[in-house]
Design a protein that fits this description.
Helix content is about 50%, strand content about 10%. The chain is an alpha/beta fold and about 675 residues long. It is elongated, with a radius of gyration of 38 Å.
């Protein structure tokens, strides 16, 4: 006897009465009445799209019905404490729903852990089913199996835990006739020897003649429900296909209500008058008292089960281990990203061509002394004024430096004489015309001009250099370095963005792919809750994020020498928390969308506004007030400031900017996890 089996053979295993289910205002199930007795095979037949899969999902508690009642093994599906979905039911979906990176052994162990089987039972069932279903070597990877072998493995997963009820959704579609006959023989053996009840859906009508009971389904309701021999006898035809055609023709002609099951006083011959009284379905008709939910069972069903979480975590690590290229990508991509940022952003532009128009005739020529103080940042091209201006217009040079004919004499005059004419001031000035289309390069040229002039003044005037110096002296900074560059400013935010958005992309895509391939659905039917899936994902990727963070910081501090005055532990915790927040956002995206394209578009759509508005690449003080208020609630704004405070100011939790970064990151993390759980629960 199977776990949870009942000795009351008179009680139906599945009983549906008046079941209706609508999807987007389309009636998928229409007043469906169906009964499955214990120890029987029920063949649910009908064309694709008639509602067979929808009915199975309703029976498993995966979809909610709009009207009517369904009981599975004595209780409604998904009733608290009832193991449907769970261990009492075995489910084989239309999709293969197998992890390609798993071996056959890995597949059995994964679902065995979820169903609570011990090691001995898993190995025993593995040995039996490999032989029973004629499976290949148990260590062979699923992705290397043929389609027929994969279908047998999928069937073996449904049989693994010895369920009391088997729901098989078109298990024979796309397989050869020999394998199809073998599957039906397996089902007959299991039902005969172990009293399992089976519902098998198919659109191959004739193959269902081996079933004990068949239901002919069309447009969401049953046309007839009876043993196959009885149906063919009553319709005086030799095949079930002809029975189905007769019933369809009769239904089209009379627009009658669905024909009831054998056992009711109803004529199944479409050639005779089939007037029936519509059945109104109410719970009290069947004299079934309402089931009361036990509070302890309800609370127990809400608590995550550690065995399921561990099974999912182990599953993730096995898949990662079988994909070495993906593993290298996960670890190297953050390093490549931070390396590109540190190497390519914030550095000083070099070899900038600047045209020089030097008309200075002084001896010695002060202009030549000034020009000698430029470093390799500026490349001097000596031209006449016409060619210099034309070169800037043509994009050959970034600017023009011009000296008047009396520059040397006028420069000294404006320094030593008390009163000079405006012509002397102009003649003793260095005239600069710049191409301002690239602000960073134009700022660099201006900075180099300023530095060269300061060195020039010291060289020419010596102790009297103060006469030509700007009366502003920048002292040693209180925080940071006097020569801090743009790379140092953006690095903290970039580190957080790498951890955040890498987690968003990987999580969103992985869940969408698993849902598309039916893998999530199969886990849910096995009894895994939405919260368990989310917690397992967080735990399994935590180690990956720690390794990524370690590599990031090694390259940031040791290779690129980004300064750090703070606590390394706080830095690691904040980066990992940002990674978990990104993972949580990825869970929200994956829960809300069903295809990779939508998930990628949303993730990319979030990336750019977050980078711009979070003060990562430019201070938020420069943004308009309305956008600044919005930026303050983003996940990375306060976190970036907190990381800058830790790195460059040596701050800890005694400073509010650091506290706010951690608190807001934690708040977003909790919000995204709850939202992902709610969306997953609703869509489940």
């Amino acid at each position: 006897m199977y776990p949870g089996a009942t000795n009351d053979i008179s009680q139906p295993v599945i009983e549906c009465r008046g079941v209706c289910m609508s999807y987007r205002k389309l009636n998928v199930l229409n007043n469906l009445n169906l009964t499955l007795s214990q120890g029987k095979i029920y063949g649910l037949l009908g064309p694709s799209g008639c509602g067979k899969t929808t009915f199975l999902r309703c029976a498993l508690g995966r979809l909610c019905i709009s009207k009517g009642t369904i009981t599975v093994l004595g209780k409604p599906p998904a009733f608290p404490g009832h193991e449907v979905p769970g261990r009492m039911v075995g489910y084989m979906p239309q999709e293969l729903a197998l992890y390609n990176e798993f071996s056959i052994t890995d597949t059995f162990w994964f679902f065995g852990r979820i169903h609570g089987l011990n090691s001995k039972d898993i190995e025993s069932r593995l040995s039996f089913l490999v032989k029973f279903l004629n499976l290949p070597d148990k260590n062979q990877l699923v992705k290397h199996l043929s389609d027929g072998q994969k279908r047998r493995v999928s069937l073996a997963v449904a049989l693994l835990h010895k369920p009391q009820l088997l729901l098989l959704d078109e298990p024979t579609v796309g397989v050869d006739p020999i394998l199809r006959a073998r599957i039906w023989q397996h089902l007959a053996d299991v039902v005969k020897d172990q009293k399992v009840s089976v519902i098998i859906t198919t659109h191959y009508i004739e193959e269902a003649s081996q079933a004990n009971m068949v239901g002919l389904m069309r447009d969401g309701h049953l046309l007839a429900e009876a043993p196959p021999d009885e149906l063919m006898r009553l319709h005086d035809v030799s095949t079930l296909e002809k029975v189905f055609l007769n019933l369809c023709n009769a239904s089209d002609q009379s627009s009658a209500k669905p024909i009831s099951a054998v056992g009711e006083k109803t004529n199944l011959n479409p050639g005779e008058n089939n007037e029936q009284i519509p059945i109104q379905i109410h719970e009290d008709v069947y004299n079934k008292p309402k089931l009361r939910v036990d509070r302890n069972l309800l609370l127990k069903s809400m608590v995550p089960r550690w065995r399921n979480i561990m099974a999912l975590v182990i599953k993730t690590f096995i898949r990662i281990r079988r994909m070495p290229g993906f593993l290298v990508f996960q670890f190297l991509l953050p390093v490549i990203q931070i390396s590109l940022v540190c190497l390519c952003i914030g550095g000083i532009p070099e070899n900038l061509p600047v045209a020089v128009v030097n008309n200075d005739t002084g001896q010695p020529a002060m202009s030549q002394i000034f020009l000698s103080h430029f470093d390799n940042t500026i490349t001097q091209i000596h031209l006449n004024q016409f060619d210099a201006i034309k070169g800037v217009l043509d994009g050959k040079y970034w600017g023009v430096i011009g000296f008047a004919a009396n520059f040397s004499q006028d420069f000294l005059s404006r320094i030593y004489e008390k009163i000079v004419k405006q012509s002397v001031v102009d003649g003793g000035s260095i005239h600069v015309w710049l191409d301002m289309t690239n602000p960073e390069i134009s700022i660099t040229v201006q900075l180099k001009l300023q530095e060269a002039f300061e060195d020039f003044v010291k060289d020419v005037l010596g102790t009297f250099s103060y006469l030509a110096s700007v009366p502003i002296k920048i002292e040693e900074p209180i925080h940071g370095d006097k020569h801090l560059n743009f790379t140092t400013f953006i690095t903290p935010g970039i580190i957080l963005s790498i951890a955040f958005f890498l987690a968003v992309g990987l999580t969103a895509l992985s869940f969408v792919i698993e849902r598309r391939e039916g893998l999530l659905d199969r886990s849910w039917v096995a009894g895994v809750s939405s919260l368990e899936i989310i917690l397992a994902h967080v735990f399994s990727h935590l180690l990956t994020m720690i390794i990524q963070t370690t590599l990031l910081l090694i390259f940031t501090f040791l290779v690129f020498k980004i300064p750090n005055e703070g606590n390394l532990f706080l830095i690691v915790i904040l980066i990992v928390m940002q990674g978990i927040t990104g993972m949580s956002l990825g869970l929200v995206i994956s829960a809300a969308f069903d295809d990779e394209q939508s998930a990628v578009q949303v993730a990319l759509g979030i990336f750019y506004p977050d980078i711009v508005l979070s003060g990562i690449i430019w201070p938020i003080e420069s943004t308009p007030y309305a956008l600044r208020c919005f930026s303050l609630i983003l996940p990375q704004t306060y976190a970036a400031e907190a990381l800058r405070g830790i790195l460059y100011r040596g701050w800890g939790f005694t400073h509010w900017p650091v506290w706010s970064g951690f608190l807001i990151t934690l708040a977003w993390n909790v919000f995204f996890l709850l939202l992902a759980t709610i969306i997953t629960k609703i869509r489940k």
